[in-house]
Amino acid sequence: MPAPSDSLSYDEIHGALARERSSRSLGKLSHDFYERLAAYRAEAKAGLAEESQKGPSPRLVLLQGQYRNLEEMARDILMMRLRKVSEATFTVLEGGVLNDKGMPPEEIAFSKDLLGLLQRARAGAMREGHAESPRASVPVPAPEPPRPAAAPPRPPPRPEPMAAPAVEHRPEAQSAGPPVVVLRILDDIPPFEGEANRVYRLKREDIVTLPRDLALILVRRKKAVELEVPA
Predict the structure, then answer these.
(1) Along the chain (231 residues), what's the average pLDDT of each consecutive run of 10 residues?
(2) Which residues pair with 224 in a beta bridge?
(3) Does residue 106 lie in a domain region?
(4) Closest by alpha carbon to 208, among 185, 186, 179, 187?
(5) Is residue 206 part of a domain?
(6) Which domain holds residue 202?
(7) No. of H helices and E strands in the chain?
(8) Cα 176 from chain centroid?
(9) Does residue 207 form part of some domain?
(10) I need a surface site. Which of 41, 94, 179, 185 has the fewest CB within 10 A?
């Protein structure tokens, strides 16, 4: 399979995958790895399309097999590294420091977004920042001025219909638990559609954050287990 101009090779991709499979720690990648990987995949796809136009041939079969392997390797590298980045982000939530050496900028951005999500979930679960003083917000009515003595008494005004009071959403009225749940997927799950037409593709050992209702369904079906988010 021809290599693109930025010199990323098939062997380099295979080596990155082998390092991730052989260690629980996050291997080092160049800062432009994903950019070069995307360029390599695009050139490989274009070469396959060009060969397909020539009709069936042994070379076409070879290129098709190489392209399938390339796509599988690219996906496995990404998913294994995101799982490891997620675990490292949990240590940051517990007060640790993220070692981002050897992490491309795409993974660093993912870690920051995940950390923000986890911090918001923890704040919601622990009801942080919702303290209030009900008495301080109750206004004291001003005394009604006396009526003039000479004025004839007036009949009391007929009460006007009152509008229904707006429902105040207090923290205790919300459903218990955070709006999202962090799960570890136990089995490969066929793609399915969730809220807002979002399609989920979940594989065994993926670490994901899902809406609470959807997460509870997977847990009840023994397709996932909930991970505790440290306070």
Answers:
(1) 61 93 92 94 93 91 92 95 93 86 93 92 81 44 56 57 40 52 87 77 86 88 82 52
(2) 185
(3) no
(4) 185
(5) yes
(6) 177-231
(7) 5, 5
(8) 20
(9) yes
(10) 94
